[in-house]
Automatic annotation (TrEMBL):
Domain ACT intervals: 148-224
Designated name of the protein: MgtC/SapB family protein
Entry's localization field: Cell membrane
Bilayer-spanning residue ranges: 7-24, 36-55, 93-112, 118-137
Keywords: Cell membrane, Membrane, Transmembrane, Transmembrane helix
Main location per the UniProt record: membrane
Bilayer topology annotation: Multi-pass membrane protein
Entries under Pfam families matching the protein: MgtC
CDD domains to which the protein is assigned, alphabetical: ACT (cd02116)
Length: 224
């Protein structure tokens, strides 16, 4: 049986790694963010600890049984949670990356709970690199397909949903959304940056006209 200090260390380390991945998802307004990833990673680490040390004294000759049997259920169980982040709109599917990040956080939690620190830390580093750096690389390589839409608007309930619905009608896929206060106007005004993937044949003039008709929109234009 490991010490109480080691148990606490593993749980805290797993939570930190899951939180780092969750922060990246939270910063991009994904359905599962900071707290969800922490809960998944810490829970997986706890289950790994329970499966390894929680049944000592039970089973044949007090061996506690097979540690991998309980932990193995985490890998498949996370799939149900990840499925809740996947949405389909027409021919587009959203949330697969977030679902994958939840699944891999469960795996990282199992590794840390098992004391396999190298594997857990390296995997967390690869995940963060993939989500942050490769996202920028993807936008650079496919810069003709990805554009950033700048919207200045008056904040009100349901505004983001109306913009998203309108973009969906033009088969435009939203990749990232960033919102910040816009100081040049009065209070309750937002500057929204929406990175989108546009279809090959698409008219920005018609899109701008349609967005401009939404209540609260003050201006809209492409980056640059």
């Amino acid at each position: 049986m490991i010490s109480s200090t080691e148990i606490i260390f593993r749980l805290v380390l797993a939570s930190i790694l899951g939180g780092l991945i969750g922060l990246e998802r939270e910063s991009n307004n994904r359905p599962a963010g900071f707290r969800t990833h922490i809960l998944v990673t810490a829970g997986a680490a706890l289950i790994m600890l329970i499966s390894m040390y929680g049944f000592n004294g039970f089973g044949v000759n007090g061996s506690g049984g097979e540690p991998a049997r309980l932990a193995a259920q985490v890998v498949s169980g996370i799939g149900f949670l990840g499925a809740g982040t996947i949405l389909r709109q027409g021919n587009c599917i959203h949330g697969l990356t977030t679902a994958a990040s939840l699944w891999v956080c469960g795996c990282i939690g199992l590794a840390i709970g098992n004391g396999y620190y190298l594997g857990g830390l390296v995997t967390a580093g690869i995940v963060l690199f993939s989500l942050i750096s490769l996202g920028l690389f993807e936008k650079t390589v496919f810069k003709d397909k990805y554009k950033t839409l700048h919207v200045i608007c008056c904040e009100r309930p349901g505004l983001i949903g109306e913009i998203g619905t309108l973009l969906g009608q033009y088969d435009i896929t939203i990749k990232y959304i960033k919102m910040s206060p816009f100081e040049e106007y009065k209070d309750n005004n937002l500057h929204i940056d929406i990175t989108v993937k546009v279809p090959i044949h698409f008219s920005p003039e018609i899109l701008f006209t349609s967005i401009g008709k939404i209540e609260g929109i003050k201006s809209v234009n492409w980056e640059g």
